[in-house]
Amino acid sequence: MSYDAWIILTGCLVGITCGMTGALLILRKMAMLADAISHTVLLGIVLAFFVTQSLNGLPMLIGAAIVGVLTAVMVQALDSSGVQSDAAIGVVFTSLFALGVVLISFVGDSVHLDVNHALMGEIAFIPWDTLMINGVSYGPTAVWMLGGVFLLNLLLILVFYKEIKISTFDSAMAISIGVPVVFIHYMLMTMVSFSTVASFDSVGAILVVAMLIVPGATAYLLTDGFGMMIILSAAIGALSSLLGYGMSIVFDVSISGSMAVSTGILFAAAFMLSPKHGMVAKWIRRKKMQQEQEQKASA
């Protein structure tokens, strides 16, 4: 594949992986917790490097998953103890993320890991970091990592589809019929952690928030179906990556930044033009109601 094709494939995988996970977070009203986890996993990556002295994918994923679940546990513990949920997220988010930033300064210049890389990423370098086996290149490492996380997330959603759906819309009923609500919750947190750390090299911790939240919010405006919202969110994430890459080429700007801007453009379009929830459709319905009321009054 060409250099541009690898970048586009990587961006689409980020959009799809984060998009379908983010749709579940939007429905469960956990978007800000996803924001927190997307930053605190930096601590897991740094700790994994200290333990293994390697930036290989598996240790990073394990470290990120542990810290991601720890973030959710700490937020839940503070929330249960009486701290407001938004304040609990803020306390845990800033504390763990700041600790990660402090620890990353001890890594030094020996490896390609710094605060700017972790926050912003650089998708343009992805094609050069390839997976080598017996001297043979099998493509960018990020593509393999993102593909693996995508397949894992897809498998979990398919296997636990019914349990996720029930616990999302009616947790009390889910508990009464024996659905492991707590397990589903922390499984989703693990999926968010995996999706975030797999996307680090391409879009970074800050911009991955856009991929986790905005495609899901856009899909929420376009459909009322649970399964269709997951599919639409993944498709919107991929489309945002394609549009963003095109914008970056035309205007010669940041690729990952353009992808994030594209998510906002698509959301704005859905916000205005959605057949049911869009501002234009609501205005048309109001005008029709006013006309009907005027006709009745004149009659």
Task: Spell out the key features of this protein.
299 residues, mainly alpha, ABC transporter involved in vitamin B12 uptake, BtuC, two-stranded antiparallel ribbon, 2 strands, globular, ABC_BtuC-like, ABC_TroCD, transmembrane, cell membrane
**How is the biggest beta sheet arranged?**
2 strands, antiparallel
Q: What is the straight-line distance between the termini?
A: 70 Å
Fourth-tier CATH superfamily name? ABC transporter involved in vitamin B12 uptake, BtuC
Number of helices: 13
Summing up helix and strand content along with how strands pair, one would put the structural category as mainly alpha
Helix content: over 70%
Shape: globular
Mean pLDDT: 88
Side-by-side strand order of the widest sheet = 1-2
* Domain module tally: 1
Order of helices and strands: HHHHHEEHHHHHHHH
Note poorly predicted spans: none
Strand content: under 5%
CATH architecture: Orthogonal Bundle
Rg calculated over all Cα atoms: 21 Å
CATH class: Mainly Alpha
Number of strands: 2
Organism: Pontibacillus yanchengensis Y32
Family: Belongs to the ABC-3 integral membrane protein family.
Pfam families: ABC-3
GO biological process, one term: transmembrane transport
